[in-house]
Design goal:
single chain; alpha/beta; about 10% strand; binds ligand F0G
Length: about 450
């Protein structure tokens, strides 16, 4: 399903907008805010359904996704180095399965419903599988099998797939191996594939940007900063802004910053170092092929504590190049040290997030230091996943000394924990507990 039979590229959803009822202003969507009894109006994705008009209303599969918020954080703004009022955190961890994936999965589930799929599958670093599994367990329209790499998936995510009853295959390999297998299996068995190669997933993920605009009173920010893994999100964001601009619903597009983990930096290397640019769709495919040939030749594999984005071959690379073109984008890489420090700042100054999400704050900080983002720019960092998805990384960081990390972090190259909030061990004794409390002041 997801490929063009002529050129082999991933399919993209296109609309004949002139034949569709498009609102004349984004403010028109506000009329749905009061209709909380109607599931399609309550959904943070489908209340914008005129902007992803591929499904008849009665086929929509919604579980109340997208009740997420855009929050100011003075503490994180200070860490990033911009004005207190200019930094916004978009908490996608507040979705039903705890990550942004629910925005896309409601759209993929809806399409699966339209085509009458009885079995759906995905490969995942953990969040896609949790999301697909919760849609299957609640909507009960199809069964689900999820493919995960072995040993790489954070327990919070694995526990979700198991608890929601998804058949779970732990492939002895990494995410790229699992994705390659699931694509072949789905093709052979006619199973509905729910990875972001499925273009309907990206349609749903556009809604994250609609809600960001909504949160800003329909003003366009200067920057959107997002972690990059398989590049579905960044691709969807670019498509959202391209369409809104073409429809005359916004007058300018924000700039887009996609942040790789340094240990999983395919996009950074191709876009920033090797200058592979969209070029009206004629991007240099040879450079990309050579890059992958060398990667395989050297047996170079992605490695980062931000396991959600530990990906070698991002499947949406081409669409992401288009998004970077539309949004005058930049790509940066940040180390696991920077990711975990930024994550601790998000926890200390807000609702918290999982490691991969910390990359967006670390990336914004880097871009501010480089002078690419200025102090007065309005910056929105997308926090893609909930804090509780990966408690292992969080506890390891906070159990460390400022200058000497826990062994698991040390082995991964994270040497310091400057924002650690160590638990204190105290004897089971009233006076000793009182002594410790005195030290707190
Ligand atoms: N942040 C989190 C928390 C993720 O789970 C992912 C991707 C990303 C960022 C990257 O987003 O792929 O759109 O660039 N997780 C996928 C999964 C790969 O299987 O759950 P992307």
């Amino acid at each position: 399903m997801p490929h063009c039979s002529d050129c082999g590229s991933l399919l993209d959803v296109g609309y004949e907008w002139d034949r569709l009822p498009v609102p004349s202003s984004l403010r028109e969507f506000e009329a749905r805010w009061g209709l909380r009894n109607s599931p399609n109006d309550f959904s943070g994705v489908w209340r914008f359904r005129e902007l992803l008009p591929f499904a008849p209303e009665e086929k929509i599969v919604t579980i109340g996704e997208g009740q997420t918020i855009l929050q100011k954080s003075a503490a994180v703004a200070q860490y990033v180095g911009i004005d207190e009022k200019s930094l916004f955190l978009q908490y996608e961890g507040l979705n039903p399965s705890g990550s942004f994936k629910d925005n896309g999965m409601t759209a993929a589930s809806t399409h699966a419903n339209m085509v009458g799929a009885k079995l759906a599958a995905c490969a995942s670093t953990g969040n896609t599988s949790a999301s697909l599994a919760v849609f299957a367990s609640t909507a009960r329209l199809f069964d689900v099998v999820v493919f995960v790499g072995s040993g790489k998936i954070a327990y919070g995510k694995l526990s979700q797939a198991l608890d929601y009853g998804a058949k779970t295959l732990q492939i002895q390999g990494d995410f790229d191996d699992a994705l390659s297998q699931v694509r072949d299996v789905c093709k052979k068995r006619g199973i509905y594939l729910c990875n972001s190669v499925n273009p309907f997933r990206l349609e749903g993920q556009k809604a994250i940007m609609y809600r960001v605009l909504e949160g800003l009173g329909w003003d366009v920010p200067d920057w959107i900063v997002v972690p990059g893994g398989n590049l579905g999100n960044s691709s969807a964001f670019g498509k959202a802004f391209l369409e809104l601009k073409q429809l005359g619903l916004i007058d300018r597009v924000p700039r887009l910053a996609v942040i790789n983990a340094a240990g999983a930096n395919t996009l950074y290397r191709l876009y920033e170092q090797q200058q592979v640019k969209w070029n009206a769709g004629n991007f240099d495919r040879n450079v990309i092929e050579d890059f992958y040939t060398e990667m395989d030749g050297e047996n170079r594999r992605a490695r980062t504590l931000a396991t959600a984005i530990e990906i070698n071959r991002p499947v949406n690379l081409a669409k992401c190049l288009r998004a970077l073109d539309v949004c005058d984008g930049v790509v940066r890489q940040v180390s696991d040290q920077e990711i975990l420090d930024a994550k601790a700042q998000v926890g200390g100054g807000g609702f918290g997030c999982e490691p991969a999400s910390g990359a967006s704050v670390a990336g914004a900080r880097l871009l501010q230091r480089e002078g690419v983002i200025s102090k007065s720019d309005r910056v929105v960092c997308i926090l893609t996943g909930h804090q509780l998805k990966d408690p292992t990384a969080t506890v390891a960081y906070h159990s460390s000394d400022e200058n000497q990390t826990d062994e698991s972090l040390h082995l991964a190259g994270v040497e310091q924990a400057p924002y650690a909030n160590q638990p204190q061990v105290v004897e089971n004794d009233f006076e000793k507990i009182m002594d410790v409390l005195h030290q707190f002041g």
